Amino acid sequence: MNIPNRITISRILLIPVFIILLSVPFNWGEWDIGETSLPIADFVAAILFIFASATDWVDGYYARKYNLVTNLGKFLDPLADKLLVSAALILLVEMGLAPAWVVIIIISREFAVTGLRLVAAGEGIVLAAGNMGKLKTATQMVGIAALLLHNFPFSFIGFPFATIMLYIALFFTILSGVDYFIKNWHVMRDSK
């Protein structure tokens, strides 16, 4: 249980707090920003989401720099990302800030990749995330943060940055899923 793995576990433990912030009807007020209103609870949840997302970069950087990459880390890190992103996307649908069909595609891709990883694990193979997967995760994190912030600060100028980022994240989610399966299809083909 090295420091990067502890950071990853901390990210997982922040997820219930994040869910509570968006699920419990806290009446902390709201800010009028441009053409929209930003509930303070959503703002706090967005800051927590951004912090948790930043720990993804921190644990990976620390693990690589100090040669602390472990199979546990290779398993936990993408799991933490999937849990955080899935929770956020489902809550965004409930809040009416993201279309359900986009979220269904994104989460379906995550289940498919996780299934492939489980087959690989059964064969004694650990499949780490590639660069395309990291780009997918980054675009998802930016898109989700922008939606949680109700498109702040772009709401001042009426530019739909959050919506555009969600569709960019969808594009990279599909592309990285196809790439992941093409590169690792041998695991399915050769499994017993």
Automatic annotation (TrEMBL):
InterPro entries (UniProt xref): CDP-alcohol_PTase-I, CDP-OH_P_trans, CDP-OH_PTrfase_TM_dom, CDP_ALCOHOL_P_TRANSF_CS, Phosphatidylglycerol_P_synth
- Topological relation to the membrane, as annotated: Multi-pass membrane protein
Protein name, per record: CDP-diacylglycerol--glycerol-3-phosphate 3-phosphatidyltransferase
Where does the source fall among the domains of life? Bacteria
- In UniProt terms, what function does this protein have? This protein catalyzes the committed step to the synthesis of the acidic phospholipids.
Pathway the protein contributes to:
Phospholipid metabolism; phosphatidylglycerol biosynthesis; phosphatidylglycerol from CDP-diacylglycerol: step 1/2; Lipid metabolism
Biological process annotations from GO: phosphatidylglycerol biosynthetic process
Q: Which GO terms describe its molecular function?
A: CDP-diacylglycerol-glycerol-3-phosphate 3-phosphatidyltransferase activity
